[in-house]
Design brief:
It is a single chain. The chain is an all-alpha fold. The chain starts with 6 loop residues before the first helix and ends in a 7-residue tail after the last helix. The chain is built from eight helices and no strands. The protein is elongated. The longest helix has 13 residues. Among the domains are: 53 residues, Arc Repressor Mutant, subunit A (Orthogonal Bundle); 44 residues, no CATH class. Helix 2 crosses helix 3.
Length: 150
Amino acid sequence: MTHMLPRDRAELIMAEHAEGKSIREIAEAHGHSVTTIRDYVRGRRTPGEPAARDDEFVPYIAYCRRRLADDPHLRTPALLAELSVLGFDGSRATFYRALERHGIQTHPCPDCHPASMSGYSPPSPHRSPQPFPLPKPAGTLRASRYRPGT
């Protein structure tokens, strides 16, 4: 998680450093890490703005686009599995956010519907009845319990 100092606190920290306090003393007094204080004092961080983070997904962008161009029916879990083998160690949620952030569209085949890609398709109106109907309604199956000896 990125830690961001409010502008007034960051300005106080920089003023204390200008007065001669060490970075370690300031960090201990304000309850922040030495790294955070050092970044503000040396101008690597701007008060009131979150720290810039490297996008760890960048090395995989071209691969994802190429794989989806080669196989527009490639499912997202399969793509994530491939990336994991290649070294991507982000979570599934991180992966999905990265795809969205970079505009990578899975299942780009215009002739397909996502439901058919997942293996689910709506029941056909010409579907035959269930070959072996349940002997009791499902609601009564839950209510009854097997009791040995009864």
